[in-house]
Amino acid sequence: MQLGLVGLGKMGFNMRERIRRAGHEVVGYDRNPEVTDADSLADMVGKLAAPRLVWVMVPAGDITRQTIAELGDLLEPGDLVIDGGNSRFTDDEVNAKALGDKGVGYMDAGVSGGVWGLENGYGLMVGGDAEHVERAMPIFDALRPEGPREEGFAHAGRIGAGHFAKMVHNGIEYGLMQAYAEGFELLEASKLVDDVPATIKAWQRGTVVRSWLLDLLVRALESDPELDDLRGHVEDSGEGRWTVEEAIKHAVPAPVISAALFARFASRQDDSPAMRAVAALRNQFGGHAVQTAGPSSGSGSTQS
Fold first, then answer.
1. Which pTM value belongs to this model?
2. Tell me: the pLDDT tens digits for 10-28?
């Protein structure tokens, strides 16, 4: 199968490789000349045979909206666009209508897996028409983890459902990371526990708190046992805020997710061991930038 992939950053680059490993042809476009397969969006579209399938994997917001609008002018009736970035679900109906008016199909896909997805596969939650899902299934199967399809892929519902599901997924992620981080800080504060990294590592097997996030925390502690190389400054990329907003809208109590979001706000004001742990986790699973502690002041700089 042939796919056009727009955006070859941290995730898009690895997604292209995983899809190619599954035997499909991928024509990727990125503004970075060192990784792109095409000179422009128009050049990428020209290299694809109709009916075309194009996956957009660029930062959420104006860049995604502009890219989809440009594709609408380049593609033809019968082509299909998938937005796989972290767009807000409310953008999907707008994008679907704009493309639909030109005879171009649209789907939204929530994608989870971060920088580890190349080897482990990506969890996928998609929204759109069943016929579009079926058409793109070879690509979904190439991206998802090995094993039963239903354990790594879901047709969540109509347009917008994929991004809504990914939004909630990321809200849960906020809460899980915060719980691990607070446990780390409490262990650090105790005078009874001498080896905090070993204690957390012992939770990896046989305990009810074992998880991939815990494994990543252990990995971070192995390289920096007290996480002193990091500042406890943690950004939020939007999904946590949107999750809390939707919880309020639907009158769904979400105290854990809300508290985790507010903790990130607090991290930008005061440094703390807990937020250093959250920063380390985000860097481990997603390659997100972290701020390193300076040699004396602790203000530091940003590194990828």
1. 0.87
2. 999 999 999 999 999 999 9
